[in-house]
Specification:
- The complex is a heterodimer of chains A (105) and B (205).
- Chain A is 82% helix and 0% strand.
- By secondary structure, chain A is mainly α.
- The N and C termini of chain A lie far apart (71 Å).
- Chain A folds into 2 domains: 73 residues, no CATH class; 30 residues.
- The longest helix of chain A has 26 residues.
- Chain B is an all-alpha fold and 205 residues long.
- Chain B has a single domain, classed as Up-down Bundle (Four Helix Bundle (Hemerythrin (Met), subunit A)), CATH 1.20.120.
- Helix content of chain B is 81%, strand content 0%.
- The N and C termini of chain B lie far apart (61 Å).
- The chains are: A mainly alpha (105), B mainly alpha (205).
Chain lengths: 105, 205
Amino acid sequence: MSENHSATGEQTKRHRVEGPQKHIIAFILSLVLTIIAFAAVAAGEINTTFVYMILVVMAMIQVFVQLAFWMHLKDRGHLFPIISMIAGVVFVFAMVIMALYWVWW
Amino acid sequence: MSAHQHAEGHLPHEPEKATLEGRNKVLGFWIFLGAEVVLFGTLFATFIALRHRVEDGPDPAHLFELPMIFAATMILLTSSLMSVFAVQAMHRHNVKALIAWLYPTVLLGLSFLVLEIYEFTHYVHEGHRMNTSAFSSAFYTLVGFHGAHVAFGILWISLLIGQLYKKGLTVVTAPKVYVSMIYWHFIDVVWVFIFSVVYLMQKVG
């Protein structure tokens, strides 16, 4: 068992296994963004357009935080994953705009 | 015992990226997620287009209950954090800790699913059925598709736990775990849009 521990220790020195701090910060950030979004709706009596803007901004920030930290898109060697996500977004916008044009104009 | 530790001692730092097959699996899975973005994006567009077609059915502002949605959001967010710790345990080559983090991941996913089933039966009692209106059809298709993804994820990760018990952590099992954790985070990312666009925005407007 001790042999195994020393092997892991060497790994730690060479590769600097990342700690949980960044991920806990990402979690707390997601938590705060979610609470802001729910609170904005629960408060009521705020301008509807303003609440919509808050919801969109909070959702976008939270999605970027989770993609970057939890899905490791900020790490090295993730160019192709980023391209495939962007491609998915571009495709879906192209499809929706096409459908809108087809149905309503 | 010795065979297991021997394998552990020789595992590279990121065992999911140690082999070409593992790297291809991760890349291929990201391309699949790009396609999932298109799938969910079109369902969201359909929902946004049909959200006011309530017909005789219940009004979303009265139907949706914020505390239940908030609880579901917290459960899925915490589950996502558990799977982050699972991947970190995997990078430390600690199979026991990896499995120990996968259990709460699956159990929280399961409680999310139970809550969603309760929510849907409650809606049906309120007269909000699949065939009530264009709004209800779009709602059940979008949220139900997400729920089906959660159900599949639970099944998938449960099978991986069994495989980890049987085969331990190797360069073959590591990419499977990594990919399933990416999938689990993606489900949480989709849920962020669902609670914002489907629940909160309909509650306001």
